[in-house]
Every structure is written in structure tokens, then in C-alpha cells.
Design brief:
Number of helices: 12
Strand order of the largest sheet: 26-23-25-24-28-29-27-30
GO molecular function: GTP binding; GTPase activity; guanosine tetraphosphate binding; translation release factor activity, codon nonspecific; translation release factor activity, codon specific
CATH topology of the largest domain: Rossmann fold
Helix content: 10-25%
Keywords: Cytoplasm, GTP-binding, Nucleotide-binding, Protein biosynthesis
Organism: Caenibius tardaugens NBRC 16725
CATH architecture of the largest domain: 3-Layer(aba) Sandwich
Structural class: alpha+beta
Binding site for GTP: 16-23, 84-88, 138-141
Oligomer: single chain
Protein name: Peptide chain release factor 3
Number of domains: 3
Length: 511
Amino acid sequence: MSNAPTSNRRTFAIISHPDAGKTTLTEKLLLQGGAIHLAGEVKARGQARRARSDWMKIEQQRGISVTSSVMTFEKNGITFNLLDTPGHEDFSEDTYRTLTAVDSAIMVIDAAKGIEPQTRKLFEVCRLRSVPIITFVNKVDREGRSPFETLDEVADALALDVSPQSWPVGMGGIFEGILDFATGSVSRPEGDSKEFLGKRDPSPELPADIAEEAELARAGYPEFDLEAYRHGDLTPVFFGSALKNFGVTELIDAIARFAPPPRPQPSEAGVINPDYNEVTGFIFKVQANMDPQHRDRIAFMRMVSGTFKRGMKLTPSGLGKPIAVHSPILFFAQDREIADTAEAGDIIGIPNHGTLRVGDTLSEKNAVRFTGLPNFAPEILRRVVLKDPTKTKQLRKALDDLSEEGVIQVFYPELGGQWIVGVVGQLQLDVLVSRLEAEYKVEAALEAAPFDTARWLKGDEKVIDAFAQFNRTNLAKDRDGDPVFLARSAWDVGYQQEKNPEIAFNATKER
């Protein structure tokens, strides 16, 4: 590994199905990394018991992560940038964008439930980008399936080689700790809570059946291979319990030792390496109103190359003229500190007033454009109905803000006054209504729209204008002013494609 400053950065995400224990694992990683000092600090007391990274009102009510947060901590000379991804099935778009900004991921699996649909979906997104994955089988202190069953399911369902790095000594009621294959020691539970408090048994006497299982596991699965892992072909598997602290230290060590430092990123001009001679980065998320008192907008930038210095001028590809970045932010969930410098792999927050958007590239010379952050065709379309018609202006501002964040897409029909919002998942509609009211003081209802999906139109301007003459009732503009065909059904899309072969009806739009 090189001694360049980029090589001590590890930028990773945790992916899981809801309730697999991602929030608890996040908390314990931060605790081990010294970012927080007592387990439970991530949770507030009483009714508002929720994760520190879950700050939006609807998240507090539902106890789920809806937006992606960034948390940075340091341990043993390594800077870890942990990107928290929404685990809920309705948040594939924001989650997808977050996964474009990481170099590796931890996949959390519930020992009793195995691979669930959301885990598989998120894994496929990682596979698209060859993001290497470390697997953490959580909750082994509870009754669960055989570890062999879980390993075989990961291997078969995800077409991955699995390489177990540890083994549970019993599960559920007979759980007696975790055997670490690298050292041969067993971390033992202590006290009434049966937590891991640091007691390691260097030469344990294992029950005969466990010794046999462990031997089988080591002989029957591939040995860890760094190259295969970094190519996304093999996953090292750790067993543990985030709640009881088992396996957390091993996980941090594995990320430090195995996970790749910042990887090159695809651009229109070919891949850009971390040692490229200018500062470049891309915006993968915009978040409004993180601080309700200040109505702020923070653009999250993944640093791709160079050394950023506070006050530096960078040019956003969407704007074309340079902006000075005076107050770049490093995050610990809602806590922030000003960043004087940042290296490739770091995530910095840039306060702005709508100038930066998801998909923008920032660079010193404006010669680079990063690719691969698409918008997806919405699966649900709704009309927005204002309860107070005098608030039209506020509604337009709110919809533009929220579409800029990627919470929704907004379409302005060529005919008819009611605007249409599109989302990838149902829960985003609830988030929309909740945030309109909480942050913009706009009360609105959502009604069924006569449309089923949307397609971006690409082709010769004259051909699209001719198409528009006959299909005005189905046409809209998105917030960039690009033409969109609102289809009543999948059949409708196919029919129009057949009739208009010179026009591309695109289900994604690259930014």
C-alpha cells in the first residue's frame, strides 16, 4: 500500500434489511472508534429513543433511517468515513447514490433470518460498482439458524465465495463467545448482561461439536484472498452480536486491513485516480434543513483526488463559474466541525443556497465530469393538491428543494395546473407530506395521477416537438426543463416507442 495520504482513508457504508441491527452496529463502531464515549449516547432517553444519525421528524416517529448521514472517526492512524444508508425498502434511490460514494461496504445479516429482500437489492447495487463487501452475521447470542446454512445462503444467493473469519461458540441460550480463527482465541461473555467486556481466552477448551464445526468451516470454505475480496468476488464473514459488543473490534480491524483505500472514479474522460493533480469531487447528496433554525442546505461531496484546502475555489459542472468553499464541514451525524483540509475518500459538506445539485462534479479547472449518478424513473406518480391556494409559491420552492435532494422528482405538466411528484417507493410520499408541513409550513394532499410511470425523452429537438404536438396531455418538464413523457401504463411506453423509433424513452437520466 502506498504512503500517500489517501491510503489511510476507509470510506464505507453499512447495508442491511430493516431490523438486522445496523443502527446498533453503527453505534458500536463509533464507540470503538472513540467518536462517542458511552454506548447509548447515540440514543436519546425516553420517548425520543432513536439513533443519533436519524434526525428528521418522520424518522423519530417511525424509528427508521430515512436519509443518509456521514460519520467520521479515527483509530490507529486510519480515518474512517462511515456513510449511513437508509435501510428501508422504499429508499433505493438515495441509497444507490450513497453507495456511489463508498469504496467498500459491511453487509449485516440477522443470524435467524438470513438474506432478506432488501439486503439482496442493496447487494446488487454494490455488485454493479464492484464494491467489496465484508459480511457481519449479527445476533448470534439469540437463537438462529446454523452458521453453515447462513454461509451457504450467502454463497448461493449472492454468487459470492465466502470465507469465515470467526465462529460462534454455541448460539442463543448456549452462546459462550466467538472463536477468532486468526488468533485461536475466544472472546467470552461476562456478567448478567453476557456482554463482551474484553475477556479473551487465548487457549480455550471448545466443546467437541463446536471444535468439529470450526474445523469443517476452515477446511470447507475458501481461505481469505485479498484480491478476490477487493474485486467483489469473495466476502470475509464475521459472526457476532453488535448489541453485546461481540465481533465489533474484529470488524474495524478488517476494514482497516482489508478494505480498499479510495478507489479511482469513472469520468467522461476515463477514470480519475486519487493522485490526479487537481482537486476533484462529486455531489452525491443534498440535504436541506439539517438545522431547522437556519434553513440550511448542505451538499455532500465525495473527494476523488487532490488535497482540498479551506477557502479554495472550485467550479461546479452545473454552474460553470467558480465558488469559494469557505466553511466545509466534517460530520459526526448532527455534530459538525469546520474542515481545514480534506483528502481523496473524505466526505465534506458544503453549505450553499441551491447552487449545488446531486450529480455535480466540482473541480479546479472544470475539465472533469464524473459519471454514474442517475435519476431513476419513478414507480409511483401523484398529483399535489394544496390545501391553501395562496401558498403556491412556497409549494414550488419546497418541491424544487426536495427534488434537488433526490427525495422526490417533480414534473410540471404542459397542460393543467396541478404538479406531479414521482417517487421510487411509497414511504417517500409520507416523507414528502411530513416535510412540507414541518419545514415549509405547507399543507398538501396527494391524489392519484392518471399516469403510471415517466420516461425522459431524448432525440432531435424537431422530432420531439412534432411528437409533442400530438401528445401534449402526456408531456411534462422536469425541474431542469427536460421533456418527460408521462405514461398511463407500461404498454403505453412500448406503443409510443414502436411508433416513434427516433426518440429514446429513457428510464434513467444521467446527471
